[in-house]
Amino acid sequence: MGMLYRRKKRDPVTGQLVESGPYWIKYYRGGRPFYESTETEDKTEARRKLKEREGQVATGQHHGPQVERTRFDDLVALIQQDYTLNERRSRRRLNDLLTHLAPSFRLLRASAITTDKITAYIAKRRDEGAANATINRELGCLKRMFRLGLQQTPPLVARIPHIRMLEERNVRSGFFEHEDFLALRGALPDYAKVPVTLAYYSGMRMGEVFSLQWKQIHWTEGKLYLRSQDTKTDTPRVLYLTGDLYKVLDAWRKVCEAKWPVCPWICHRGGIQLQSLKHSWRKACKRVGPGTMIEVPGTAKQE
Questions:
Q1: Torsion angles phi and psi, residue 265, rounded to 5
Q2: Which of 53, 103, 133, 209 is most exposed, with minimal Cβ within 10 Å?
Q3: What confidence tens digit (pLDDT) does each residue in 144-163 have?
């Protein structure tokens, strides 16, 4: 049986021990005692809390008082640690997601982050003008934080709240036909044609394309081996080099072997790894025709 009690403090006037402060509860699981503050001085509410804990123990849903103490910031620390241990390169993107989540959840315990609060967060972000795709990335980050908390030993959260993802409409006005792509690529300098071609045929993001190295290509097999850190899903895969993509890469390889034989990067300018193509792409769009301004393949508009 559990029990309800208050801690005693010595009265500074009389010197006697008197009960004060919130009620505490003591209950057992597997013969082991657990002590937990109810954070209330209302005896009826404290008794309800004790009954709730005893019910959780009886149904196997009790995970210990640590679950009740876990705060949003504890889950933030978990996902930051996860990114560090797995050497994820998108730390800046993670920080952007957390910057949006923190004002709504920073002061809350994890157990208080309920579906209704998440729904209120969605409404708030929509009022701020965020697109559904952007909100989904933020919600996905929050869900990942809870999943990491649930995987700890002992668990830091008792459950993952239901998080409803929003419908995304990913049709972009910047989408273009193959003929348009060829025209724009033809207006680019040679060093820029390779990353644009890789992004167009593979669907990779530009940051992933810029990290590719020559050693990842098996020319005899006609394959480009993508490491887990080179893909959006963190899953290794193979890109088959055929047709136009093979011709562009092969021609660029011959140029590089003659001029920059020790450069490991496929996408570079004068032997220095590329970081961006925005300037070259804008100039190419202007050359192709007035008013032409299409997104670089492999880039996404940020909110």
A1: -85, 135
A2: 103
A3: 999 999 888 878 888 888 88
